[in-house]
Amino acid sequence: MQTYQGKKLPYHSNLMVTVPGSKSITNRALLLAALAEGRSILDGVLFSDDSNVFLQALRDLGFTVEVDEKALRVALQGMGGRVPRSNANIYVGSAGTAARFLTAMTAMTVGKFRLDASAQMKKRPMKELFDALTELGAGVHYLCDEGTFPVYVTGIGHRQERGELSLNIDRSSQFLSALLMTAPSHFDDMTIHLTGQRSALSYVRMTEQMMKQFGHAGVEQESERCYRVEGRKGYRAQNYTVEPDVSAACYFYAMAAITGSTCCVRNMRQDSLQGDMKFLSVLEQMGCRLDWRDGELFLTGPEPGSLHGVDVDMSDFSDQTLTLAAIAPYADSPVCIRNVGHIRGQECDRLHAICENMERLRVRFEEREDGVTIYPDEPQPAEIETYQDHRVAMAFAVTGVRTEGIVIRDPMCCRKTFENYFQLLDEITG
Question: Of 30, 39, 312, 381, whose CB has the highest number of CB atoms within 10 Å?
Answer without folding.
Answer: 30
